[in-house]
Amino acid sequence: MLAKNVSYSGLARLKETKLKTNDFTPQFSVKHMHKDMRLAVNTGEGELPLLNTLRGCLARAEGEGMGDDDFSALIRLLAAK
Fold this sequence. Notes:
Blueprint: H1 10-20, H2 30-41, H3 49-63, H4 75-79
Helix pairs in contact: 2-3
C-alpha cells in the first residue's frame, strides 16, 4: 500500500488505483511529460542528474511504445528489470 510510504502524496493517491489495476489510460502521457522534461533541461543552470535520468526513462518508454500511455506506465520499466 502506497499510503504507508513517507512520500505518499495526492499524486500517489491519484495513481494508486491505476497502478493496482494496470490501467495506463492517459491522464498525462509519457510523450507529453518527455516534451516537458526536454523543455525543462533548457531552463536550468548547471547539471541536473535526476532530470537527465528521468528523460532517459521517458525516452526508453517512448521507444518501447508507451508514448501514449499515462506516465505511471514507467513502472513497467522497473518491473522489466
